[in-house]
Amino acid sequence: xxxxxxxELAAHFKVEPGDVIKKxxxxxxxxxxxxxxxxxxxELVAEDLGRTVEFATDEFGIVLTPEKEVDPSRLxxxxxxxx
Length: 83
Hints:
alpha+beta; two-stranded antiparallel ribbon
């Protein structure tokens, strides 16, 4: 399945899920907080919220959200894993 849920999209944009749901309703899309949104809907909601999105996919075609940047000063050395 391709896309992310309304809840995940709201967290990514740092807005309330209700804001994403409201934008979807305004576009005529009745959605719930746990519903998966497709790429086109994500782009439309992002545009309405004044945000931009960039899609990255893995070998299975799953849309991934960007990882948070890590502050190098907070990293600690550790031993290599034994895997």
